[in-house]
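Marked as duplicate of an earlier ticket. Keeping the data here for the record.
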Amino acid sequence: MAFVMVARQALLQLKSSTSVKACVKECKHDNSNSNVVQLPEKTRNSSVLVLGGTGRVGGSTATALSKFCPDLRIVIGGRNREKGAAMVGQLGRNSEFTEVNIENVDSLGAALKDVDLVVHAAGPFQQAAKCTVLEAAIETKTAYVDVCDDTSYALRAKSFKDKALAANIPAITTGGIYPGVSNVMAAELVRAAKTESKGKPERLRNLPEVRSAHDVLGIPTVSARFGTAPFFWNWGMLAMTNLLSPEFLKDRTKVQQMVKLFDPLVRAVDGIAGERVSLRVDLECTDGRNTLGLFSHRKLSVSVGNATAAFALAVLEGSTQPGVWFPEEPEGIAIEARELLLNRATEGTINFIMNKPPWMVETDPKELGLGIYV
């Protein structure tokens, strides 16, 4: 299973290295319309360092932050000055580039100086032996968000909870699209079920974040499925697990080289087939109640930036308590802040549905009147 997750991460890098309550909302956003965020006065002109800001995920996050909150000072952190200059040119005012090596403590310390929040998007997180960026953030008293999708790394990050508490630093791990937004969707489904249903939440399906959902939300059975389109990318992921040795897949340098090798092909295919992304979270309760959440966006490269930016803004707004938290923990994203986070994360979606029975999504229901559907 671990080898499959490593292969999944490699494939994801290729693809993305790039008062109504949220739990009862169905919405379709207009991509051309962006909601400008008014941060609290004390954080309105905050400085945000995006590590991996010249990559697809980090670059998308920086773009989304600049769009949501033009007053933010965006610092692009990376190793390539040429790519950094190009990214700064796209962002325009209130942005700059800083050269940083995340494996070097002194380099990290210099980059974090005078920064209010660091967004760690410089993966891959698989096989990373240390949480160097989080440690540096705690040392410099800098708020922290990462887009980690590796269970071992996330649990290692959680082990720094007491140190973050002592430093009075809020930190979120797994704060991207999936894991991240999917965690919050699951938490809202569970919260609604506990409020509206006599049965107990029993089973979560289609959720990539099985460990944290099981531990934090208290769901006995959590399953995960992963796929991508076009279909042959799934063949590619399966082929990697069968043809490449475990040693190869555990070698971060070799995986990154493979990502660079296939990146032109992926971009070409995305240009033809598109890069639509969809998330679906299903919740089953002991009384037979079944509900789901559905998220669809035409562009993964855009949606992952919106999602990560939504977590960053939540931290700046004070919705995260000191410590290291998963997104579904109320200390990570306060329950009352989830609706706003989902509103921002779903900017530009073609479909976003929460807390609906599966039959309303899988078929085209017609209302007969008086709330009766067939």
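See parent ticket for discussion. The first helix runs from residue 2 to 16.
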